[in-house]
Amino acid sequence: MPDLETVLVAAPTFVVAYTVFAMVGFGTTLISAPIVAQVVPLPTLIPAQSLLDLAASAGNGLRLGSKVAKAEVLRLLPAMMLGLIAGAYLLIIVPLAALMVLLGAFVVLYALRGMLARPRRRPLRPGWAWWYGFAGGILSAMFGAGAWLYAIYLTRRIDDPTAIRASQTSLIALSAVVRVVLFAVAGKYSDWQVVGLSLVLLPAMVLGVFIGNRIAHKLDRTRFLRALYLVLLGTGGALLVRGVISA
After folding, report:
1. Tens of pLDDT, residues 131-172
2. CA distance 45 to 50
3. 144 and 34 in contact (C-beta within 8 Å)?
4. 83: nearest Cα among 125, 146, 168, 27
5. Which residue, among 204, 197, 189, 194, has the nearest Cα to 56 in the 3D structure?
6. pTM above the 0.85 mark?
7. What is the per-residue DSSP string for the chain?
């Protein structure tokens, strides 16, 4: 079971992370991993968070299932599966310090992209599903953070915001199922550190989803995302520096 220091760091972070998830449809690992990775190794954190992501996305998916754009989900799914397998393998073999550097750099680049990029509405060709699905699968398995790539693809293929959110939620749920299966096959869930962390942080996940659903329709999403990118820039930078020092 995690010690008190770990709980004091991880629990409030997970409340915030799943509040963000309920509000914008993704972002749990982008919020939590740069902070919680300071006290929990990524090979322990990512499998534990995969279990919680599965529970959270399954709950939201039940409410939005009828709105899923099935054709787009099916286009993304094969490449996503291949990416998940590749990412799970890399998570097991890549050294911890390198993982910290990669995750820190990834979060910083994601934040900068969000702050600087202009919205693009030009439709994508269906063939791009292979790139977005594969890259998203790798990032999902390694960092639990591929959903933003699915969101980019879906927003440039679908006009209905509800359909976008429903389709993204279904992809997150499917990704979480595959990640959990892969980590189970790899023996990650025979480690009681992983299982204990998941159980201890389950109430934080539930509370975060509850809060996020309550305030989702009351907050200006554009301003919220701008603040979110600033937070990600700071936390990702801190993790990147720590990874470089530890290498």
Report:
1. 999 988 887 777 766 777 888 888 888 877 778 777 887 888
2. 9
3. no
4. 146
5. 204
6. no
7. ---HHHHHHHHHHHHHHHHHHHHHS--HHHHHHHHHTTTS-HHHHHHHHHHHHHHHHHHHHHHHGGG--HHHHHHHHHHHHHHHHHHHHHHHHS-HHHHHHHHHHHHHHHHHHHHHPPP--PPPPTTHHHHHHHHHHHHHHHHS--HHHHHHHHHTT---HHHHHHHHHHHHHHHHHHHHHHHHHTTGGG-HHHHHHHHHHHHHHHHHHHHHHHHTTTS-HHHHHHHHHHHHHHHHHHHHHHHHHH-
Give dist(CA 202, CA 104) in Å, integer.
Answer: 25
| Residue 90, number of CB atoms within 10 A of its CB | 15
Asked whether the beta carbons of 221 and 215 are under 8 A apart, the reply is: no
pLDDT one-digit tens code per residue, 188-230 = 899 899 999 999 999 999 999 899 888 876 766 677 777 778 8
Amino acid 100: pLDDT: 74
Sorted by sequence, the CB contacts under 8 Å of residue 221 that are 6+ apart come out as 23, 24
Q: Please name which of 23, 31, 56, 64 lies closest in space to residue 218, comparing C-alpha atoms.
A: 23
Binned at pLDDT 50, 70 and 90, residue 62 comes out as: low
18-51 confidence digits (pLDDT tens):
988 877 777 787 788 888 988 998 889 989 988 9
Report yes or no: 67 and 169 within 8 Å, Cβ to Cβ. no
pLDDT at 98: 78
Q: Could you tell me the two tokens for 52? A: 């919680």
